[in-house]
Every structure is written in structure tokens, then in C-alpha cells.
Design brief:
18 helices; about 425 residues; binds acetyl coenzyme *A; 3-stranded antiparallel beta sheet
């Protein structure tokens, strides 16, 4: 049965089809709204009610706390798959066979070096530069070294661009850190797994052998899987909208990195730790900060709490919390900040302000604690998020291009001055 939505404006009725997704989500298709009404538009700042596309990549139900990539639950993927398998699944739609996975990894490895001249660009950044700025700049710079734009009608060209960026991005991420840490720039070791290799590229000291702890690798692998996609969030929408002008993959990704940087999005993982540290410095009084978070005249918000879509526990937060406990135990780390985090979580979950507004811990509430335990500095947390989100951005960009979506160009409702005539400066 086809459904119809009727909009009545000034007594005139207009009908629009209601489409249904595979998970029974309904959406009013208003593609013809302006044409049939003579220019009436919709307004929805922050796109809280607006679907920008149809997508077959990620399903999430914020009310029930469900997250699935290509139909597979995040819990099952985090437990049974590794990050590269998940990357392949997100990008190409199906889990890879053993042969496909091996080829994928081997193709990625064959691109795991970047042009030596990239080092000169990195050299120009001050040591104190935020690594997100460095990462987005270097990702853009890659275009200069790989100037041919991808012919999206060629699956082969698309595949090559994808494995190229999946190979080079961990190198750039590790270099952004090594520059800051004053360590020599190094390449990885292609005999290692993707995540293990990344850890080595980050932390290997020139004077000693680097040994990876499997518990740490497993935990980082999980973190990357949990961050790999989250449908049409701020950075992903940015990647799609930049790509919709037919801009190339790498520059679209660079734009996504910048969008991710903000503290209301990926930057929240850094903001959480900074908040927890501030609470610790201030004597550890969680109640004081709970009151500040609830005080409407105080701009302070409990970072790592609340989510635009989840009005229930963020399923990723549950998995990360368990992983954080495991890693801290394995590494023998006792972090007073974890106690503050647990205290805040307990208080918030029992507080009517948070309960009424359905504000639960989100993915970033515990991820920073793991990164900290691994020795990753606070301002590298968001680049770590970017590394995890990379396959999702690529998958969404690819989908948008394959579906030949039109250029993204929202409308507005103008509320400025109406026509007025110009006065010369001496007459004003
Ligand atoms: N602390 C205190 N109050 C909060 C918080 C918070 N963290 N989050 C939301 N609220 C309150 C708001 O003040 C508002 O209250 P009101 O209804 O009395 O005015 C209500 O809850 C709804 O909040 P909105 O800002 O309208 O919710 P929105 O969906 O626009 O924002 C967001 C979601 C940005 C994530 C918000 O919850 C927030 O700022 N959280 C802290 C930052 C954070 O952790 N971001 C990471 C998100 S996850 C990610 O991007 C990977």
C-alpha cells in the first residue's frame, strides 16, 4: 500500500509520497515541494528531521540503541571481526572472502608509503600545531602528489584510490604524532597487521625494538571498528556534500577531518579528558560539575554525554567501557580519572535532568581513557577517531558518487533587510 502525506498551505492541498526504508522508517519525499507549491521550502536547522539521502551502509536506531553496519550488529562485529574486514564490509557492502581480504590488505600495504616531499610540508608546521590541522592539511596535500582525479565510473580506479588512502592515512596520522613528539619519521612494517603496524609507526623508538601487546591491539582494533561509521553525522555529511560537487576523494576526506575536529563531534573525546582532568584538579567534586552542567546560565556541558540520535545508551559506549577496564587491567594502569568518569556516569544516570533529557554516555566518554592508557596524548584522540572513521567516510563518498546524487545545496529562509538603496559613505 503506497502512503501519501498531505500538506495544506493556505487551503490548498499538496500530496507527497511517503517512502519506507528496509527497517520500516518512513520519510516524506518532498523532492517536488518547491515545484508544485511555487517555491515553498522547508526549514530544519541542524537537519534534525531531514534525511539528506537514501543509504544502504549503516542502520541506527537511537531510541533502542541499535547500530548495524550493512546489517551486522556492532556488538558482533566488535567481537568477531577485525578493522580491515569491517572497512571492506562498509565500503563494498559484503564481508570479504579470505582471498578478497588478503588482496585488500596486500593492496593497502603496497600504498603504505607517502612521497618523501610530504615530509617537507610536515616540517613547516610548528611542533605545537594541533594534529587534526596537520592531518587534514596532509590529506589535502596528498592530492598534489596523486593529481589524477578518480573516474567514478571505473570500479578499478575507485578501488585504487580507496586502497591508496587506506595505506597512506595511518602513516600521516602517525607522523602527525611523531612530529609533535619530536620522534624521527618512520615507516611501518608490512609483515604486521593494519592496527599493529599503526601502533608500531606511532611508538617505535629509534633505539629499541617495538613489541605490541595483543590486548592493546585488540582494544584499538575494537575502538576503530566502533568509530568506523555512524551514518549521516556532521563529518560524514560534510564528506558527502563536498564530494557532491565532484571534488575528489582525498579533499572530501580532508573536509571531513575538519568537521570531525569540533568539540561537539569528534573533538569530544579530547574535551572529555580535559573535563575529567579539570574536575580532578579542582578536588574531584563531581557533584559541583553535575550542577554546572544542569545550570542553564552556565555554558558548561558534561562532555561525552548526550547524542543527537541516541536517546538510549550508545551501544558503542557499552563495548568501550568493558574494553577500557580490560586494557587498564592489562597495563596495570590506575587512572584516577577513570574513577571520576565512573562517578559522573553513575550520578548522571540517576539524575532527573539527564534521565528526562535521555542523556547517556556516548562513544567518547570512555574512548579517551583507553587512548590515555596507551600513551596517546590528548590532542591525538581526535586523529585516532579520524583513522577509525576513514572507511565510513570512504563508503559514504563512494555510495554518493555511485548513486549519482545531485550537488548538495540546501535552501534557506531569508530574514535580513528587504531592499534598501545605497547611501554614499559621506551621507551615512
Ligand atoms: N550536558 C548537559 N546538558 C546537556 C548535554 C550535556 N552534555 N547535552 C545535551 N544537554 C541538554 C541541553 O542543554 C538541552 O536541554 P534543554 O532541553 O533544557 O534546553 C537538551 O539536553 C537537548 O540538548 P541539545 O543540545 O538540543 O541536543 P542536540 O541533539 O542538539 O546535541 C550533542 C547533541 C551536541 C551531542 C549534545 O548532547 C552535547 O553537546 N554533548 C556534549 C558533547 C559531546 O559529548 N559530543 C559528542 C557526541 S558523539 C560524537 O559526535 C561522536
Amino acid at each position: 500500500m503506497s502512503r501519501i502525506a498531505t500538506i495544506e498551505i493556505d487551503g490548498k492541498k499538496y500530496e507527497f509520497p511517503v517512502i519506507e526504508g528496509t527497517e520500516n522508517e518512513l520519510a516524506i519525499d518532498i523532492k517536488t515541494l518547491r515545484a508544485v507549491t511555487g517555491g515553498v521550502t522547508t526549514i530544519d536547522p541542524g537537519y534534525k528531521n531531514t534525511g539528506s539521502c537514501e543509504s544502504a551502509i549503516t542502520f541506527l536506531n537511537g531510541e533502542e540503541g541499535i547500530l548495524r553496519y550493512r546489517g551486522y550488529s556492532i556488538e558482533e562485529l566488535a567481537e568477531k571481526a577485525d578493522f580491515l574486514e569491517v572497512a571492506y564490509l562498509l565500503i563494498f557492502g559484503e564481508l570479504p572472502t579470505k582471498e578478497e581480504l588478503e588482496k585488500f590488505h596486500s593492496d593497502i600495504k603496497s600504498h603504505a608509503i607517502v612521497d618523501e616531499d610530504i615530509k617537507k610540508i610536515l616540517d613547516g608546521f610548528p611542533k605545537a600545531a594541533h594534529p587534526m590541522g596537520v592531518l587534514s592539511s596532509l590529506t589535502s596535500a596528498l592530492v598534489a602528489f596523486n593529481p589524477t582525479s578518480v573516474n567514478v565510473d571505473s570500479e578499478e580506479e575507485m578501488y585504487n584510490a580507496i586502497v591508496r588512502i587506506l595505506g597512506k592515512f595511518p602513516v600521516l596520522t602517525a607522523w602527525a604524532y611523531r612530529k609533535q613528539a619530536g620522534l624521527p619519521l618512520d615507516y611501518g612494517d608490512n609483515s604486521l597487521g593494519y592496527v599493529e603496524n599503526f601502533m608500531k609507526m606511532m611508538f617505535k623508538k629509534p633505539t629499541e625494538e617495538y613489541k605490541c601487546n595483543p590486548v592493546v591491539v585488540d582494544s584499538l582494533d575494537k575502538l576503530l571498528i566502533l568509530h568506523a561509521d555512524h551514518e549521516q553525522n556532521c563529518s560524514t555529511s560534510t564528506v558527502r556534500i563536498v564530494g557532491s560537487s565532484n571534488a575528489g576523494l582525498f579533499v572530501s576526506l580532508s573536509a571531513g577531518i575538519n568537521a570531525l575536529w569540533g568539540p561537539l563531534h569528534g573533538g569530544a573525546n579530547q574535551a572529555v579528558i580535559e573535563m575529567l582532568e579539570a574536575i580532578k584538579e579542582d578536588g574531584g567534586d563531581t557533584k559541583k560539575y553535575m550542577s554546572k552542567a544542569k545550570d542553564k546560565s552556565d555554558p558548561f556541558r558534561l562532555m561525552g554525554f548526550g547524542h543527537r540520535v541516541y536517546k538510549n545508551f550508545d551501544p558503542r559506549a557499552k563495548i568501550i567501557k568493558v574494553s577500557a577496564d580490560k586494557v587498564l587491567h592489562e597495563l596495570g594502569v590506575e587512572d584516577p580519572i577513570l574513577d571520576i568518569a565512573k562517578g559522573l556516569e553513575k550520578e548522571a544516570l540517576e539524575d532527573t535532568y539527564f534521565v528526562d533529557r535521555k542523556l547517556y554516555p556516548n562513544v567518547d566518554f570512555y574512548s579517551g581513557i583507553i587512548y590515555r592508557a596507551l600513551g596517546i596524548p590528548t590532542d591525538m584522540f581526535t586523529p585516532m577517531f579520524a583513522l577509525g572513521r576513514l572507511p565510513g567516510w570512504i563508503a559514504q563518498w563512494r555510495e554518493m558518487r555511485l548513486r549519482k546524487e545531485p550537488i548538495g545545496r540546501p535552501r534557506q529562509v531569508y530574514i535580513g533587510e528587504t531592499y534598501r538603496s545605497f547611501k554614499k559613505v559621506e551621507d551615512r
